[in-house]
Design a protein that fits this description.
Elements lengths: L5 E4 L5 E9 L1 H18 L6 E6 L3 H16 L5 E4 L30 E9 L3 H11 L6 E9 L11 E5 L7 E5 L1 H4 L3 E7 L2
Helix pairs in contact: 1-2
Length: 195
Amino acid sequence: MKAPATRKVSKAGGPLREKAQLMSSSEIDRTLVRLAHEIVERNNGAAGLALVGVRRRGFPLAERLARKIADIEKVHPPVGTIDITFYRDDRSTSVGEARVEHTSVPFSIEDKTVILVDDVLYTGRSTRAALDALVDRGRPRRVELCVLIDRGHRELPIQANYVGRVVQTAEAEIVEVHLHEVDGEDRVVLCEESP
């Protein structure tokens, strides 16, 4: 078994130590297959669906889900990405007026069922910001939330419609989702601040 490695730094500035692997590449893939089937079943097919991934890791997850839905239904739902930077309630007020957004929703969301896709659901604040950013682009018929990991500790009354895995965590722990498109590997790890 691979020894835990120091990866990033915490928000407090200390190094993070990998505590446990929560999901392997194959587990992520199997989970996405299941989530795609759940989305298709709940929506009676893929007609009228659109997937919007929260930048950064929500977007590749949305693309993968769309491909899996297309494998099931032979209809590839449109996929977009949304940047929530300027919608966050913890954004510094010193940020200038320049708005460099990495949002691309190249289709109308009007009267569509939009599946909002993110990697980790934690306090719910990122999801609230994503909803604000989404409705700035139109009025969907319905918005459903799909997350790979739900780690609890909600601060807002937000719940996912589709959950890959529920992971009980301490508030001091951090769940890192690594995706090949962003990180060069597929796995989910639980980290903690090194002493």
